TrEMBL record:
GO terms for molecular function: serine-type endopeptidase inhibitor activity. The lineage of its organism: Bacteria, Bacillati, Bacillota, Bacilli, Bacillales. Pfam families: Serpin. One of its GO terms (cellular component) is extracellular space. Residues 59-410 form the Serpin domain. Signal peptide: none annotated. SMART domains: SERPIN. Belongs to the serpin family. It comes from Bacillus inaquosorum KCTC 13429. This is Proteinase inhibitor I4 serpin.
Amino acid sequence: MKGKMFTVLLMFMLFGGGCKPPAEEPASSAQSPASSDAAKNKAYDIHEGFIEAERIFGTELFQNMSDKDGFTDNLLISPYSLQQVLLMAANGAEGDTLKEIKAALYLSGLHDSSINKSSLALMKRFESLPEGDLLTANAVWTRLEAKPDFKQTIKQFFSGSIFKMDDNIQTAEDSINQWTAHQTKGHIDDIVDHLSPEAVSLLVNAVYFQEKWALPFDQHVTAEEHFFLPDGSAKKLLMMKQTARHEYLESELFQAVKLPYEDQHLSFTLFLPKKKPASFLSLFTYQNIKAWDSAFQPKTVELSLPRFTLKGKYNVKHALRDMGMKSVFSDADFSSMFTEGRGVSIDDVNHHTFIKVDEAGTEAAAASSAEIVESALTPDVTLTADRPFFFVITDEQTKCLLFLGFVANPNE
């Protein structure tokens, strides 16, 4: 392998039927003046508004899910993967359900064809990375006959496969788990553990990522030091150390450093608040992140960063509801997916995540389910991440947000 790996998996559990590709909505208004990023995305046939929408959706969802009261818990989500699995569902939705999904994803202004084409183009861009791997796999398991237009959309724009779901629940679970384990190199092998007897379909999205740091940390200088927790107490952790030229940004409220992976278009950006994490979260918006992107300057940074491992299990239903997806969870319309129609609604959206960062690079995994029920340099600066910090993993080429995270307690 070229590096350690990062896997993301998202799953949609469908109960009940009905569903085709969403109807076209009016095209968005004129695009903003072209930037270098917009030009690059255009070369990949990725609509500028598609990436912007993913970034707005990701930052808003992250803020919505954050522990605003005490910031005592770690948090890790994958905006890209959540967007992708919701887009698959949108291609089987109609009426208010379709409108609400698109609105929550900030894609109301785009043609459905532009959305699907951009999604496919972004997938192809990730497949073309010169160094590591960032691959997406999609599949649909169903007991009902999928509509021809839906099957064509999944195949053409999501490179997905349609499988017949076995009537035996245990056999169906084993089949889906084996597929997901294969796609995630064994990191996620139990995405389905309690398949409902009423389940008629399952939409699955898996993403595999593997990268090393462009400038690996030297294991020989890693040393045990104190990390200060949100409650003010301290615990000893292994801190990685490096003094090197990196893109750096500092204000009265935070320090930030951008660490490139071997593929220079992928980066890990660490944001270290100078005050309480809650004061920084209010700044952690799409507009600010966009402005900060162009404000980083090369500096020789003396960096200390803990090895860390995060695990999390989240229910995203309430956050998505707060973002406008209401009928989706009560009286949904998925009448464009199957030839046999039934009234259905999404019951739960769960998101499970894992990330490990060490001297060599990054390894991570995430799994989500949406259940639909019937009815040696002299440093210029020093950054010591010895207290809670935020991070972003970004595709610098397209500006797609792959992961957003908050580390309250490393290795919890």
